[in-house]
Structure formats: structure tokens, C-alpha cells
Amino acid sequence: MSDYHEPVMGREMLELLSVTDGGLYLDGTAGGGGHTRMILEKCETCRVIAVDRDPDALEEARGALADLRAGVRFVSARFDRAVSDPEIQDRGLDGALLDLGVSSRQLDADERGFTFRRGVKLDMRMEAKGPDAAAFLAQADEDELTRVFREFGEEPRARRLAREVVKRRATEPLSSSDDLVAAMAVTLRRSPGAKEKARIFQAVRIAVNEELESLEVGLPAIRDVLKVGGVMVVIAYHSLEDRVVKNAFREWSKACVCPPELPVCTCRGEPLGETLTRKVLRPLAEEVEKNPRARSARLRAWRRAA
Ligand SMILES: C[S@@+](CC[C@H](N)C(=O)[O-])C[C@H]1O[C@@H](n2cnc3c(N)ncnc32)[C@H](O)[C@@H]1O
Asked: What's the predicted TM-score (pTM) here?
């Protein structure tokens, strides 16, 4: 197995996906191909469409899955756009997996600029196109910066940090990890700890890559190409992402979604499917011990009805 990325909650994912012979599966966040490998090792006659928006990650997945190539097709795209793939549209999916966020490989590569390690040029783009983190910090106005630091970074001093960024960039752009950490240090009046830095850097990454937008569009798009009985499994690492997943699954599992003031039901009147994880699943302690990155994982699954 590739050491690229330990597949998080792989056992739980396989159990819920309950892969069937000849099935077509979407791995919307292929990364190092760990989960794709687990699906294909469980079911030799299955096919996986392995999608990643990061072309480098997809290249790694190609290498790591070379022995299973007959069962995989690689697609370089955001998962919310990959569902328009003709094979998916024609056949429909027997199951889909999203293992959100970034891989350890991306975080560990200084040249990708995701990390708060010292002297790293801020970039954070999963795809090598569009505005990077330095451009975001240069262009977003104070309100937008505040929203990102507060909502995505859960930063209590979000407004103060946004003001500090705006003040600093008037004389010199924030282009490296040190520049953002220095702005945090002024706001906090001390050096930020690793967890504080991680939260703010993650917040900027979520904004730069429009990660919540991709999820909000991707979830219903994937739902609509699931066959009857097809299962969607989502592993999230951020409470906001998990909330989007939880709310979507809850909404789709309701029989009636009419506003409460309506006297009679005029909507679809039946659930689109059922949530398979009544309570969110968390990784077992043994897994977290072996792979600390799994610590914040939250897994939810949903099955499409007729
Ligand atoms: C946590 S890793 C996945 C690891 C993978 N499950 C494995 O076992 O190796 C997340 C991957 O998803 C990709 N990614 C994140 N958001 C994406 C999106 N909206 N569309 C496509 N790929 C995405 C990232 O580039 C990264 O490679």
C-alpha cells in the first residue's frame, strides 16, 4: 500500500459503502489513492473513477495504483464538476466517497505553501491556477477577512486580525507564512501557538480553494447520480464542513420539506433516502494513535431511496 496518505476510517468507509460486484464508484478526493485501493481490493470487478483537483496528487495516485489500473479511471477535476462525466451520467453510481481537505503530502510540501512552517511562500492552491493565498490576503476587504478568520478559523479576535492584515499590506504585501504569523502575533500580543496558526492557515486555505462552495454544490450533484441503494460516504475534518454534510443528509431524509406554515404538503412528500449514520462516526483510538491526522475526522453516510 502507498505510504502517501493513510486512508482515514477506511474500515468504516468500506462497511458503509458495501461495494457490490461490477459496481461503479466515485472517489471524489483520490489523494494518494488509499481509499480507492481499499475499494478495489475488496471488489475486483468494481470500477472506480478517481477524481482529484490537484494534478500532482492525481499523478501520485496513478503511480500508487499502477497495479490496479484496469479498475480505475483518473479524472483531474473538482468533484462537484466531475459528476458531469459521461460514464457517471450514463451508468449512475453505486457509491461515492469524499475524504475532504488536504492530504499530508500537500501539507508537507513547503513549495505548495499550505504550511505555517517558517519562511514558506504563501500559496495554498490545490490547483495550480487562480488567486493564491498571498493574493487573497492582498485583495480581500476587511469584512471578508474577518468572516474567513471568524467562520472558518473560529478566531475570537477575527476583526482585529483582519485590521492588522489590512494595515500591514498597505506598506508591504503578506507573501510568506512569517508575514501572516507576525500579524497574528500583534493581534494576540504574543507568539501564536501551533494550534492557533493551524486554524488561521486552514481558514485561508478553505477560502482560497472555495472548499465549502465545492461541497455545497457537490453533495446534491453526487446525490442525483447515485443509483437506488447507492451510498455516499463523506469524511470531514472541519466542523463547518461536517455541518454542511449533516444538514444536507438530514434534509434529504425528511419526507416533507414544506415551510411549516403551509396547511398541506406540496413538496416531494417522501424522503430521498436515509442517513445511515444516526450519530456521526469518529475514528477509533487505535487509528488516531497510528495516524494522528485522523483525530478530527467525522464520517457520515447516506443511502439513496427509490
Ligand atoms: C484527505 S486527501 C484524500 C486522501 C485519499 N482519500 C487517500 O486515501 O489517499 C484530500 C484530497 O482531496 C483533494 N480535494 C480536496 N477538495 C477537492 C475537491 N473539491 N475536488 C476534488 N478534489 C479535492 C485534495 O487535493 C487532496 O488530494
From this structure: 0.95
CATH number for the domain harbouring residue 16: 3.40.50.150
Mutational pocket test of ligand 1: of 12, 40, 125, 126, the residue with most ligand atoms within 8 Å of the beta carbon: 126
The residue from 153, 184, 208 where one domain ends is 208
Tell me the C-alpha distance between 6 and 290, whole Å.
9
210 in helix, strand or coil? coil
Tell me if 125 CB under 6 Å of ligand 1.
no
Give the pLDDT confidence of 174-203 residue by residue, as tens digits.
Answer: 999 999 999 999 999 999 999 999 999 999
Atom of ligand 1 nearest to the CA of 6: 8
Residue with CA closest to ligand 1 atom 14: 29
Shared domain check, 221 and 202: no
Residue 78 Cβ inside 6 Å of ligand 1? The answer reads yes
Give the C-alpha separation, 7 to 299, whole Å.
Answer: 13
Tens-place pLDDT, residues 211-246: 999 999 999 999 999 999 999 999 999 999 999 999
